Amino acid sequence: MQQVGIEIKNVVKEFPARRGEEPVRAVDNISLQIYEGEFFALLGPSGCGKTTTLRMIAGFEEPSSGEIILRGKPVQGVPPFHRPVNTVFQDYALFPHMTVLQNVMFGLEMAGVNKQEARQRAAATLEMVRLKQFDRKPRQLSGGQQQRVALARALVKQPAVLLLDEPLGALDLKLRKEMQYELMQMQEELNMTFVYVTHDQEEALTMCDRIAVMDRGKVLQVGRGNEIYETPHSRFVADFIGETNFIEGKLTAINGKKATVMLPGGVEVEATPDQADTPMNSSVTVAIRPEKVTLVHISPPTDQGLNARVSTAEVMSAIETEEDRTFVPGTIIFSNYIGTDTRYTVRIGENSTLIVREQNFGNFKDIAFKVGDQVMVFWATENARVLIQ
Length: 389
Fold this sequence. Notes:
Shape: elongated
Structural class: alpha+beta
CATH architecture of the largest domain: 3-Layer(aba) Sandwich
CATH class of the largest domain: Alpha Beta
Number of helices: 10
Radius of gyration: 26 Å
Largest sheet: 6 strands, mixed
CATH superfamily of the largest domain: P-loop containing nucleotide triphosphate hydrolases
Number of domains: 2
Strand content: 35-45%
Mean pLDDT: 87
CATH topology of the largest domain: Rossmann fold
Helix content: 10-25%
């Protein structure tokens, strides 16, 4: 059983009202358990409460109510300097008049560590983050090098928990990807608890063991990246994590793990119900990822050769019958080539559209669908979810 390193219990954080305004509830009664040695993400849009949560763990803010426990000990009223945590911010806040080595030594010297030991520990930590230019000033470093200095300064005191508040936000895309990989390696080597705040869902999915998706001060879902991506529990989570199709309709039947939804115009589709007790004829949303949908031509196109496709009947008969699938006729109304795959917009039913992403194989010009093509859209029932939120 994994040991809990950080426990957040029913925590609320309210900020006082400004003149003529109501108090702001930045964090609204959240509870979380973060395990020892885990790379954990707080993910959500700006203003969702993720940074405020991080600041309460660090001790820069105190909860209005509730409790935060670090390694089994409540930390209410304990100042940041006496908590077993350290923080890396998006603004690295390096001392411009100090060298790299002096910046990293500073926290140790403030804690009473003698200068020789502080120098040795700082040098060893800088080596760990692959930075050897000890005598340079921050202004002489690149963005990635400054980020490494900030990491070294946070790690040199060997905290139990490292808190990272969007630390890669100021870096360009290529460097950000490189630093993601380095942070993952570092966390694994140190076996330290990392709590990582980000609004970038790809970053969270790439780096973290588990993710808490937040919105408006609440935690909406916690789980591993694949769990949240494949089985979102709300429309917000499905929409925020990756691209998702949302089809509106009426719930007409639930049979075990299969729900039937009627779209406007009478088209029926099937999906996995999120809640078994949803009343019949309720307005619901079917959520399905574009890459989970497949296209075939209803009949072979007029031009022959590689572009000629087998008939829909042949395709349907070749599909294994034990897997439930939904088949819906549609029309291609837009096509967008994006390199590795092509993004199609397909009209189904009266007013519904689906985004479908098809990977490009072979000679793209010969096998692509075209605007106006009549197609059959199909997906496995388990890949679509009925959401009521």
